[in-house]
Write a structure and sequence with these properties.
It contains six helices and no strands. It is mainly α. The chain has one domain.
Length: 170
Amino acid sequence: MNIVDALVSHHEQLRDLYRQSENDTSIFEQYIQHLVVHHTMEEKYFYDFLEKIGSARHDALEAVNEHHIIELIIKDAQGFPRDHHNFPIKIEGLGEYTNHHLDEEESEIFPMAAALFAPADLTTLGGLFEEAKARLLNIELPDVPKQIDTSGAAANRNTAFGLGIGSLKT
């Protein structure tokens, strides 16, 4: 599979995970995991190469910057209590910005890349992306030990410092 087809295929999976997480917040972590893996591997196996082509440099850098913005939204949402009544707004904001980014890639950047790269290079990069994605999505992170002292965090439990939508008091 070439890189453009591989990325579009994963975009559909990202959109589906977003839709599911809107109705089931337990899907949110899976959505985040896929987004982070997608952006990381897309940069490594697509944008790092596209950036080296003068006519595509600006678009590649803009897309990578949008990845950074999505990662900031992810960090904000990850720090927000899942049971808070405003958590679905965090999911919605991330999904809307991400979907806009995916649509822009598919309509503008991918067609340009398909014209700029040799077909064999597109296929090689697609294989690398698919292999890396499969490996990374099977990684399980260890749980944080229960004996870690979180008493400092407990003092700030009723505030939404840095979370962008005010107090967590219900």
